Amino acid sequence: MLKELIINNFAIINELRLDFKKGMTALTGETGAGKSIIIDALGLLVGSRSSIDFIRTGQDKLKVQGLFEVHSGSPIFAILDHYGINHSDNSIIVNREINRKGRNVCRINNELVNTNTLKDIGRFLVEIHGQNQQQELLDEDNHIDILDRFSDEDFKNNLVKYQKLFTQYQEKMARLRAIQKDSQNIVQRIDMLKFQIEEIDSAQLQKGEDEILETEKNHLANFEKINSSLQESYRVLSENNVGSVDSLGNVRDSLDDIKEFDKTYQELYDSINGAYYQIQDDAATISDALDNLDFDEDRLDEIQKRLTVIDNLEKKYGPTLDEVIQYGQNAHDELDKIDIDDSTEDKLIATIEEDKNKLLELGKVLSDKRHTTANELEKSINKQLKELFMKNSKFNVQFKTLDSDSLTDKGIDQIRFNLKTNVGEDFKPLVRVASGGELSRVILAFESIIAEKMNVDTIIFDEIDTGVSGRVAQAIGDKIYRVAQAVQVLCITHLPQVAAMSDQQFEIKKETVKNKTQTKVSLLNDQDRIEAVSLMLAGTKITDLTREHAQELLELAQGEQKRLD
After folding, report:
1. 328/399 Cα distance (integer angstroms)
2. Of the four, 67, 273, 442, 558, which is 20 to 30 A from 53 by CA?
3. Are 274 and 229 contacting, i.e. CB atoms less than 8 angstroms apart?
4. Per the confidence metrics, is the pTM higher than 0.85?
C-alpha cells in the first residue's frame, strides 16, 4: 500500500508531503483545487507519460517520491529480481524527476530504471480508475480482456500457450503469403523471360550485322549517284586513249629519256611512273565496280525492314546490337536457374493446418472456461447492481464464435457486455444504454468483485461517483468502503455520503501566496470533517443546520462501517 507521497513543483503544488494508512481515504475539495493533480503525480510514479508542462511555473524540475509497503506474496518481487533491483524488506521507494529539457530520471530503491521498467513494476503498486476506465468499458474490443481478468491461473496459462501458438501460426501464414507472392512473381518473370528470349532468338541476330546492312543500304539508296560518278571517273581516266592514264604514260616516256642526266629528273620519273601504275589500277577497280554494280529494289526493302527489327530490339534491350545479343544470352541463363519448389509451399500449408486445428482445440478450452467465468460474473455483477440501487438492471455477457479464418490472439470468442436497465426491455450493448451514473455503478460493481483478485495493494477512484446522488451515493460509499477492506483505496469525491464513509479525509484547497497559486492539503480531524462535509452539503454557506446534518451523516457512516465490518 502507499504509505507516503512527496510532491515538489508539480503544477500548482509547491511542496506536499502526505501520509496514508490502510482502508479508505477520501480526497475532497472544490473543483480545480488540485485533487486530480495529486493523482496525476502518483500516476507518474507508476509509469504514466510525463510532460514538461507538469513542472511548476518558475521551477526547473519537478520531483515525485513514493514509499510503498507491499505484502510478502506480491508478484512484484519476482519482477524486481528480473530487473536486478535490490529489495531487503517489503518496502519499495520510487522516485521520478523531470526537468525543463525533458530529461526523465526514474529510480526504484535507488536503482536507475527506464520508464518501461517503471510501468512494468508500477502496475503491481497502484491501479487508477477514472475516465479512462469508463472509456475502456465502453469499448467492446476491451470486453474480452476485462472478462479474462476474472479467470483463474489455469485459464491464464492456457491463454499464454494459445497466444504463443497463435504467434507461430501468424508467422507461418506470413511466410506462406510471401512464398505465394514470390511464386506469382517468379511465374510472371518466367513468362517475361520466355517472351524476351523468343523475340530476340527469332531475329537470329549476328554481331556487326547492323553495320553491314547500313553500308549495303547506303549503296542501294544512292545507286544512281554512285553509278554516275564511277562512269564519269572511268571515262576521264581511260576513254578514247586520251584519258588520264594515257597522258601519264606519255609524261612517263618523256621523262624516261632524260632521267639519267639529273637526279631531279629521276625523282620526277619515279613519281610519275608510280602514279601511272596506281591510276591504271584505280581505273581497273572502277571498271570492276561498274561491272558489279547492280540495283535491287526488293533487296533495299528487305534491308530497311531488317534494320527496323534491329532498331526496335535495341530500343528494348540495347542500346547496341551487341548488348541486345548479350541480353538474350543473359535471359537464357536466368531462365535456366529459376526453380519453383512446390513441395516447400505444400509442407508449409500442412503445418499451418495443423497449427489451426491446435488453435481451434485450445480456443474451445478457453471458450468453455470463459462461458463458466461469464456465468459467475453475471451473477456477481447483478448482485452488486442491486446493492447499488439498480435492482431492475440486468447484466449479461454475449458470446459470438469466430470462424476458423478469423481467429484472434484471444481465441475463438468475440465478447460484448450488455445491459438492460428496466423490466420488459431487451439486452442492449452497454455503451448504448448506460447513463453516466449507471456506468459509474457498473464500473464500481466490477471493481468490487475483482478487488480481492487483484495483485495491487492500492486502488484509486478518481471521481467514480460522478452523476449520482441520494441513496445511490450512500450505496456507492458503502461499496467503496467494502473494497477498502481488501485493498487500500484513495477516493476523489464530491459526495458527502462517500466522504463520510472514509477512514481518513484530506481536504485540498487552493490559495494564493505572494501572487502565486498553490495547493494546500490538510488531514482533517473529527471537527474539521464536520466543517468539510457541511460545505459539501451546503455548497456555499455553512449554517448550524448543515453542521448538524454533517455530524449526523458522519455518525451514520460510523454505524454503517461497523455493520459492513
Report:
1. 62
2. 67
3. no
4. no
505: pLDDT confidence band, cut at 50, 70 and 90? very high
Residue 497: HSE in the Cβ half-sphere, 13 Å Cα cutoff: 16
Pairing of strands 488-492, 458-462: parallel
Query: Considering only CA atoms, which of 484, 509, 480, 483 is closest in space to residue 495?
Result: 480
Partners of residue 94 on adjacent β-strands: 66, 108
Strand positions, DSSP E, 316-412:
394-401
CA-to-CA separations, 270 to 253, 262, 275, 448, 565, in angstroms, rounded? 11, 13, 9, 129, 143
Cell representation of residue 455: 495483485
pLDDT in tens, 244-267: 777 777 878 887 877 787 788 788
Report phi then psi at 137, rounded to 5: -70, -25
Please choose, from the candidates 441, 521, 440, the residue with its C-alpha nearest in 3D space to the C-alpha of residue 25: 521
pLDDT digits (tens, 9 = 90+) for 180-239: 887 778 888 888 989 999 999 998 988 988 888 888 788 777 777 877 877 777 777 776
CA atoms of 374 and 383, how far apart (whole Å):
14
Backbone angles phi, psi at 455, to 5 degrees: -95, 15
Taking only the tens place, the pLDDT of each residue in 16-35 is: 999 999 999 999 988 878 88
Q: Residue 62: helix, strand or coil by DSSP?
A: strand
Q: Name the one residue in this structure whose C-alpha cell is 502518483.
A: 42
Question: Which cell numbers in the block locate residue 512?
Answer: 494564493
Name the grid cell of 339.
526453380
Q: What is the pLDDT of residues 383-432, one digit of tens each?
A: 888 888 888 889 999 999 999 889 999 999 999 999 888 888 888 888 77
Distances in Å between the alpha carbon of 11 and those of 59, 115, 219, 419?
10, 21, 95, 40
Q: Which residue has the higher pLDDT, 164 or 461?
A: 164
Of 506, 489, 507, 498, residue with least CA distance to 561? 498
Q: Which three cell numbers stand for residue 42?
A: 502518483
CA distance 148 to 106: 32
